[in-house]
Fold:
Amino acid sequence: MQNMRHYVLMAVLVVVVAALTYLGLNALGLMPVAAAAQASPIDWLFDLQVKLIAFFFALIMVPMFYSLVLFRRKKGDSTDGEHIEGHTGLEVTWTVMPLVIVIALGLIGADNLAKVRAPAAQVEEIKVVGFQWSWRFEYPQGFVSNTLYLPVNRQALLLMESADVLHSFWVPEFRVKQDLMPGRITEYRITPTLIGDYKVRCAEICGASHAYMESPIKVVSQEEYDTWVKEQTALAEAEAIAALANPDPKRGEKLYNESGCKACHSLDGSKGIGPSWLGLYGSQVALADGSSVLGDDAYITESIRNPNAKVHLGFPQNAMPNFSYLKDGQIADLIAFIKTLTK
Ligand SMILES: [Cu+2]
Structure:
């Protein structure tokens, strides 16, 4: 009878401590706002696991502290404790129970993953390229953006590829995370449900500037999205025509900032991951093989298309990914920009 009282009291304490632990963990605000349809199954599973964590935490801590306090050695008591020789019932329970929980979580997880990856009938397909150290979003209408625009309440299918090493596309508000690999296309489906500004971060350490590999994401209304796509398409067409005929350093500067050049090449002469662009045009560039080359249109174009052809003295080979996706007009704009960077 005396024993029964201890069990009942402990059970009550376990329930109370579990509830308080769960409420406490929730109060910490572990998750940012949920901004995509795919977030709800993930948040549901996360919540289930936090409940389990709270329960098992209480199940271990309560009996431990209860015993430490109530059954501690009394003054003057030097007798030995009770000897217990195993308990088949208990052993079966603590083997079978975790097994059942783990199998159940596995099945729930598989079902959850299927929900998160379920395709919608109509999707907005956008190509995503991750590179050291930025993101590029290529729209099927023929333009490239450094901000990912997405229409609200419409599923976007991101077809993702890396230009160099492993990266990982992660928007905490969307919950889903997906790796990018060179030479392989990975899929990422998302249905944004909340208009607003977000950020994609790289979640796979990918080199010196990994921490700065982030780009803005704008979830906008369908009308705003359509207008933006129309504008960008017209702009890209006009730029392609204008650039070849008349290279513009302003557009070159924009490309420098948005295509990833900035991550490695300074404009003030300081040494970055790559050589500075200050005073590059028209200078004699010292190469790793001991020779030198004139910093002219041909050299710059070759270095953008095939960076390993002539490696700058003092910089390692293979440090720069190739930027062969840049069109002739864009390279002309970049060269026009580099020409303005005189010492
Ligand atoms: Cu990365």
About this structure: DSSP finds seven helices and twelve strands in the chain. The radius of gyration is 30 Å.
